[in-house]
Amino acid sequence: MLLPGIDAAAAHRSAPRPLVLVGHSLGVQVAVEVARRRPDPVLAVVLIGPVVDPLASSMIGQGRRLMLDLWAEPPMTGAMVTRDYARGGLFSYAAGVTSMLRYDILTRLPDVPAPVLVLRGRHDPVAPRRWVARLAHTASDGRAADIDGAAVHNVVHSRPAETAQAILAFVESLRAR
Predict the structure, then answer these.
(1) Coil, helix or strand for 145?
(2) For 75-123, how does the pLDDT look when each residue is reduced to its tens digit (9 = 90+)?
(3) 157-175 tens-digit pLDDT
(4) pLDDT tens digits, residue range 68-87?
(5) 37 near 15, Cβ under 8 Å?
(6) Do residues 167 and 117 touch, judged by C-beta distance below 8 A?
(7) Cα 123 → chain centroid
(8) Of 34, 62, 38, nearest to 46 (Cα)?
């Protein structure tokens, strides 16, 4: 759907603008899959707090790491996450984790031709430094970085300015190349 005043024919004729795909947690898998399937307009991909570390590739492993994270999140973030999981219920959680566990990001990420930045909170229990470094190394053009002062998985909520700054610096470094 186009906004009023936008000429549909002109919008269709114009070349797609370069995109920076950003995914957080389970959204990382979505960003990788979009970049694999439609690479043409993708300038870069940013993966924040990626799941699923093979060392926690079970429903219990993911649940344990989520619980560790909830204790470290700022109170408002922890309350928001807890409310969302409570609202969805156990079956929703199980379905989400089952979907996460089926997606093999390690075999799909090398198919992404765009540069990749893998971000995490400095002590994110869901996305440990070793896992983030492995993903960055797996990408054809990858790098990893921590968000300073963010000990948590939900850095996009607890440290939005720092997260945005890291993404912008990454995109600017690509333009400089």
Answers:
(1) strand
(2) 776 677 677 767 777 777 767 777 877 889 999 999 999 999 999 998 8
(3) 888 999 999 999 999 999 8
(4) 777 777 677 667 767 776 77
(5) no
(6) yes
(7) 16
(8) 34
Strand residue runs (E) in the chain: 19-24, 42-48, 116-121, 142-147
**Third-level CATH fold of 17-176:** Rossmann fold (3.40.50)
For the chain, how many residues are written? 177
- Per-position DSSP letters for 91-104, written without gaps between them: HHHHHHHHHHHH--
Q: What is the CA radius of gyration of the chain?
A: 17
Which residue from 26, 50, 37, 17 is spatially nearest to 116, judged by alpha carbons?
A: 50
Inter-residue contact 111 to 142 (CB < 8 Å):
no
Cβ-defined contacts of 20-23 (< 8 Å, 24+):
20/44, 20/45, 20/46, 20/167, 20/171, 21/45, 21/46, 21/114, 22/46, 22/48, 22/167, 23/47, 23/48
